[in-house]
């Protein structure tokens, strides 16, 4: 029987006929020969649950999935926006029912109590302090006790949650496990159990709700600009700017459209925010499907960074701002992964001193500043314009074993060295064992071509003989 097909879920009509999840398919067909079935698809169920959760974000951005069939909303401090707890609960059920879902919502002070009430209780609005009275008449399954634990409890005469409450805790924990009592304490609020939010709450949010849904692109853009102004005010009050901006459009039929854009500098100007969103939409090839309209539009600053209000200087050079604006526009138009820059990394090895990152991503400004200072120093050695990803081996001949090369063969071509500068010794970080030290030379051959090559290893360290590599080319 362990390999038998079983019912994963039942609709209301099947449940009224005595069928229930977990029942073997053969037994179900014996009870109802005309039973209509479909293969279970857990992946599609989870995708649908995520879509519903995104749509439920219209009531609160702090929510979590509770598979296979639940969503937890943290509505603390938000119920007054919807006419109170009862009105909010009724609105959730009504809107989901209009989309074809059979939903049952409960409001409680703890997630565990809300879960239990939504599935097993007729009391769907439980105030803080009423958890114990609400839990007592509920079946053991209200504590999410597994089938084996529930069966074992029933064998000793415990059928309701109240039966567990009225008995000593130590024998129950010893026989049925401490997790059972932990779930009871969590439902009663004795143990704090925060929900694992589906997405991290944005630092700043501006939102607009409509009694009559917006149905034209002009109305949508006007709404975005108004929200951008509100968001800019919030950012300015804290001397911050937005590095990543998200626009959410909640359609009345349950569809949610999300647009995320990044900025190369902390952004606070409303028109600049809207321009990036417009660029993203107009060049993504995926226009917003307004459908029957949007009744909620939300603009959020997902990542922020300090941006003090600067003093206006008419002599100030605006090139930096123009370049940042160009980067932001191209990133929104072409995709952030297609507009890149070099991100400095603290590493002695030249090939590891930088990595390619999207230009709008938040960068390590301290590393970038130290990199620019080091490169701008008069004592800084010259670096080649073209650096190979991996050094290429060469055959070199030196006048003395530890001296500069006088000729070398690279890519089957022999080069006679006319001028050479070096060595510049580069070793790995002392806390890393990343290979032997390198002696770099800037060499110019008889035809005026300049190379950057190095000898890896030292002659007197007692290890393998040194080897030569080509690492870059000068202009």
Task: Describe the fold and architecture.
This protein is of the alpha+beta class and 475 residues long. It has six domains: 1-40, MutS, DNA mismatch repair protein, domain I; 56-103, no CATH class; 106-199, DNA polymerase, domain 1 (Orthogonal Bundle), CATH 1.10.150; 204-331, 2-Layer Sandwich (Dna Ligase, domain 1); 340-376, no CATH class; 386-473, no CATH class. The chain has 14 helices and 14 strands. The protein has helices at 12-16, 25-31, 42-56, 85-98, 111-120, 131-135, 147-155, 161-165, 169-176, 178-188, 217-237, 270-283, 319-334, 365-376; strands spanning 63-66, 70-73, 204-214, 240-251, 256-267, 294-306, 340-344, 354-358, 386-398, 405-410, 413-426, 438-445, 450-456, 467-473. The strands form four sheets. Strands 9-10-11-12-13-14 form a six-stranded antiparallel beta barrel. Strands 3-6-4-5 form a four-stranded antiparallel sheet, with helices on both faces. A two-stranded antiparallel sheet has the order 1-2. A hairpin with a 4-residue loop joins strand 12 and strand 13 (450-456). The longest helix is centred in the middle third of the chain and has 21 residues, at 217-237.
